[in-house]
Structures are given as C-alpha cells and as structure tokens.
Write a structure and sequence with these properties.
The complex is a heterodimer of chains A (278) and B (285). With 278 residues, chain A is an all-alpha fold. Chain A folds into 2 domains: 36 residues, no CATH class; 175 residues, Orthogonal Bundle (MetI-like fold), CATH 1.10.3720. Chain A is built from 14 helices and no strands. Chain B is mostly helical. Chain B has a single domain, classed as MetI-like (MetI-like fold), CATH 1.10.3720. Chain B is globular. The N and C termini of chain B lie far apart (48 Å). Classes of the chains: A mainly alpha (278), B mainly alpha (285).
C-alpha cells in the first residue's frame, strides 16, 4: 500500500504521510476484515462443536445445511420475506421519495425526518412494541407480519437511495412532458423512472438485505412453524450448539459480498454506457 | 384553485409510507406508552419501579459506560483512519472506503458468530494472549468482548462523518503552522483538531446513540450477569411477560435515544448521516 503512493506522488516528500499512520490504518483494516473471515475455515470443520482451529476437513456442515429441512425451510422463508419486503418497500419508498422531491417546505422536511425514525429507533424497542401489538393482531409467526415489520424498517433505505438518484433530476422535464400532453402517470413511467432506475434498484437491493439479515424483530415474531434464517442461526448458537451455522455464515458472507458488489458493477457499466451520449 | 389541487395530489404518494410507519411503529409505540402508564387508572408506578428496583439503574449505567467506551475506541481508531483517507490517492481512498463498509454489510449473525469463535475459551485471542504470557484471558462472556465487537461495527459511523469534515480542512494551514516554527504535534492540536471538531462531534453522537440499543451482540457475546439495557427489555417482555414494566423501560430507552438524535441533529445532521452511512456505496473514482 505504501510503495505506489510513494512512487506516484512526489509532492508528498514535502508533507509525507507518517509511517505510524499507515500502521494504524493497516490495523484498522485488519480489524474490519479479518474477524469475519474466521467463519470460512470453520465451515469446513469436522468437529461437532465450535472448536477452533478445526480438527479436520469435512463437507459435512454444507451437506447438513443443504439437506436439513430446518435450515432449508428457514432459508426459503428468508428469501420469501426479503423478496416481498423488497417489492413493497421499493414501491412505497420510491413513491414517497418522488413526491417529497417535488416539495420544498417545512412540512416536506418534517415528513422526511419522520420517515427516517425507524433507522434511528433502537431495534429492540421497535421489536418489543411490534411484538406486543402483533400478538393482539395475530400477526406473529406469519409472513404478513414479517413483511410488514421489515418493510417499515426498509423504507428509509429506499427513501435515501432514491432521493440521492433524484438529486440530479431536472423537474422541468416533467413540465415539458406535461406540456406535450403526458398524464402524470405517463410522465412518471416514461421520464422519471428511467432516470432514477439505478437509485430504485439500489434501494431494492438494500431493502432485500435489510430484511434478509434482520434478527431482532425476527426473534420476537418467530413461531415454531415459521422462522427466518438469522433466527435459526441464533438458535444454533444459543440453544443447539450446531456448527452448521458456520456454513450458513460463510454462504451469507459470500452472498452479501456479491450483492454488495453488484450495484458497483451495474453503476460502472451504466456509467460507461452513458458516456458516449451527447 | 388549481395549485391547491396539485398540492393535494402530490401528497397522495406519501400516504402508504406514512400509513405503514403509523401502523407498524407509531401505534404499537403509542399503545406501549399507554399500557406503561395505566393500571388501568393513570399511574407512574412502572416508571418509579425503574428507579427503585435496584437493577434497571445499574444496567442503564453499564449500558452508558459500554456505549462511551465503544465511542472512545471508535474515535481513537477512526480519526487516524479518516485522516489517512484524506491523504491517499483517490484509488486507495476508494479501497479504504469499501473496507470501512464491510462490517456494516456483513450479516449480523455471521459477524457475531465470528466473534464467538475468536473470543471463545481456547480461541485465537486466548492463544495469542497465552503466547504473550497471559494465561486464561477469555473475553467471551465479558463486557470487554462485547465492546470490541461493537466497536468494529460502529466504526463506519465514526469514520464517514470524520472523513467528510477532515477532507474539507485546508492542509496548507498545517504547513503554514509548521513554517512558522510549530512542531507537528502542536500544529495538529492548535490548527487541525479545532477545525475537525464538528465531524468529531457528529461521529461521537452517532456512535454513542446507536450503541445504546445493541441487543444481539451483548446477548450472544456478553454474560447474563452483565446484561445491557436491550437484554433487560427483551427479558422483561418474553420471559416475565410484564408488558407494562417492559413498556416503561422501552419508553425510557426510546426517549433517551430520540433526545440524543435531536441534539445530534443540531450539531451535525445525524438522522441524515445514518441514512447516508447506511446506504453509502464505495465509489472507485
């Protein structure tokens, strides 16, 4: 890391980056990356406990993950809840972001702040309140209950992401479209949507991940018949001492890394595609 | 006339978002509050109990102490890192930014499970301490272990506000101070640090506030004897089924958090900062 900066940036010899700063930077990078990597060797362990280092190599944990109905069902449930949440949160959040972008007054700013409340509220407080209410509404342990609760916490992410995409949006385009006879809906579909599509897609991915990875609310809404994968992972540490969690963790780490890199690649390609245009 | 019509219809797309927020968050929280002050007549007994039960105040104090430790650790690690980000080439900066966001987007359960492996009895941290001559250092089940794991995931919330503040400071001021005979250390503390205080304040408030509500990390890595406020809240809800007492505690935690958020908003725009951090995407260029 040090050599390219030193060779490429001559002016730095006047005002060099101190060596100890690079050491601290390296330590922080290690602190960010290394801990999570421990789950990968663990996932090939032949042990029946969380023993580290693993005593031997085995595919047994992956085999168990992909054949044990408890793990497979919870994985399927997570996909179902996260997909529905992504669709619902993206629709609701995009509608809110687009209409808020057309207003610039105190009321709009207040609404924007209020819509961010789910992000700043402690998850445990929300989970407890939602749990008690859902008990009364018979929504605990139901797909509807999970999707509604997850959508409420995912909407802010869509809102931020779409609002960011709308930052460079010229509102005069809508006036032009309206003056040419387009209805508001046509204008939205033909003018607004194509310009903010990347922000919407990013928001949908965030909403999916937020739901797929959500533990606290899911722990309270779980029932013996319906639970998501993070809850099964939680059980496998607290109740069952089931090392299959390391296979599940490794798959999650790899999956989220891919999903996280996907928007970058899309952004890069879309950017390249747009460049030749006048 | 027609402008009124436009205004009304432009609010319409906000209805689903606000309805969902009201139904899932505001109504349950409102009911929680009402339950916490009624027995069924109006009462503050549930809140009085929080002060007199001998447990809640201890746990709240421990939670605040843990959050403060996490905040200080994140500042000590995050400040040099954010400063380094402002000094390197744009390409390296892009890499450093991706690295910051890794713990944030790593699966919560995978990350906590990794910390269990590392900190457990017989795990790599214990082995490393044993090599240094300290036997029997097991951080699993201690508040120290919880603090380390929380610091890792809270660091992005310190680094990103700091990065935007430090990046806007004119470094020529430092060179000018040096040119006028100041030592590097004095130049930093007299020139750079005061200019960075806005970012420090924003990061500190953000990390402290978010640290107060941690549940999964202390539940998995800490010990029940050293529980934090989120564990107490969960325990009173699911084990004791004392919804009124749990509600009172939940309200206290929520009010403390929201007061801090509003205060932080005055100093550094925290609500939007959380959104920005949460949805930040590394840019390679």
């Amino acid at each position: 890391m040090s050599s390219p900066t030193r060779t490429r940036r001559r002016p730095d010899t006047v005002d060099p980056i101190p060596w100890w700063l690079k050491v601290v930077g390296g330590l922080v990078i290690a602190f960010f990356i290394l801990p999570t990597l421990f789950v990968i060797p663990m996932s090939f362990s032949s042990a029946t406990t969380f023993q580290f280092p693993p005593p031997g190599f085995s595919w047994r944990l992956y085999e168990n993950f992909f054949t044990n109905p408890i793990w497979l069902d919870s994985l399927g449930n997570s996909f179902l809840v996260a997909s529905l949440t992504a669709v619902l949160a993206t629709t609701i959040g995009t509608a809110a972001a687009v209409s808020l972008s057309r207003m610039d007054n105190r009321a709009a700013r207040l609404v924007r702040t209020v819509l961010m409340v789910p992000i700043v509220s402690p998850a445990i407080v929300v989970a407890v309140a939602v749990y008690i209410s859902f008990l009364g509404w018979r929504l605990t342990g139901t797909v509807t209950g999970y999707v509604l609760a997850h959508t409420a916490i995912a909407v802010p992410y869509v809102l931020v992401s779409v609002t960011g995409a709308l930052g460079g949006f010229d509102q005069r385009l809508l006036k032009a479209s309206a003056s040419l006879g387009a209805s508001p809906l046509t204008s939205f579909v033909r003018v607004t949507m194509p310009l903010i599509s990347r922000g919407v897609l990013t928001g949908a991915i965030f909403a999916f991940i937020v739901s797929f990875d959500e533990v606290v609310i899911a722990l309270f809404l779980r029932s013996p018949l319906f639970q998501t994968m993070p809850v099964q992972m939680y059980n496998s540490v607290t109740v069952e001492i089931d090392p299959t969690i390391s296979a599940a963790s490794s798959l999650m780490v790899v999956a989220v890394t891919i999903i996280f890199i996907l928007p970058q690649l899309l952004r890069g390609r879309a950017g390249r595609r747009q460049e030749p245009r006048p | 006339m027609s402008s009124n019509k436009i205004r009304w219809s432009s609010w319409l797309p906000l209805v689903p978002a606000l309805a969902l927020l009201a139904g899932i968050l505001l109504v349950p929280l409102g009911k929680t509050f009402i339950r916490s002050v009624s027995n069924p007549g109006l009462t503050l007994a549930n809140y009085e109990h929080l002060f007199t039960d001998g447990v809640t105040m201890t746990v709240l104090g421990r939670t605040a102490l843990t959050a403060a430790t996490v905040t200080i650790a994140a500042l000590v690690l995050g400040y040099p890192y954010a400063y380094l980000m402002t000094r390197v080439s744009p390409r390296t900066r892009g890499i450093l930014l991706v690295v910051v966001l890794i713990p944030f987007w790593t699966s919560v359960m995978a990350r906590n499970f990794a910390w269990i492996i590392i900190l457990q009895d017989g795990g790599p941290v214990q082995s490393a301490f044993a090599l240094l001559g300290f036997d029997d250092v097991v951080l699993y089940g201690t508040n120290a272990g919880v603090t380390i794991a929380m610091t890792q995931v809270m660091l992005p919330f310190m680094v990103l506000p700091l990065f935007s503040t430090l990046g806007s400071i004119d470094r020529k001021l430092l060179l000018a101070a040096r040119g006028l005979g100041s030592s590097p250390t004095a130049a930093f503390w007299k020139v750079f640090w005061p200019l960075s205080r806005g970012g420090v304040m924003a990061g500190v408030m953000l990390v402290f506030t978010l640290s107060l509500g941690f549940y999964v990390t202390p539940a998995l890595l800490g010990s029940p004897q050293q529980s934090l406020v989120a564990q107490l809240l969960a325990q009173r809800t699911t084990l004791l089924l004392d919804f009124a007492a749990a509600g009172a505690l939940g309200m206290v935690v929520l009010v403390i958090t929201l007061v801090l958020v509003v205060w932080a908003n005055r100093v550094g725009g925290t609500v939007s900062a959380i959104g920005v951090v949460a949805t930040s995407q590394p840019k390679d260029r």
